[in-house]
Amino acid sequence: MSTDKEAMDVEDDFAVAEPDDTEPVVEVAKTNLSKRRTIDNLLEERRLQKQLADYDFDL
């Protein structure tokens, strides 16, 4: 470390982060929710088809 008093050059030109980072997160959340709903619908359809196949029509 130097004990001399030297003027330090400070750059004030720095990049400011824009709030654009929130938009892709929203898109990912919508996509994940959409995929989850699709999976839930397919599972429900499979469950209903199994119930229909197991149903005794000779009542």
UniProtKB/TrEMBL annotation:
InterPro entries named among the record's database cross-references: DUF8197, PA3496-like
Name of one Pfam family that matches: DUF8197
Protein's name according to its UniProt entry: Leucyl-tRNA synthetase
Organism: Pseudomonas fluorescens
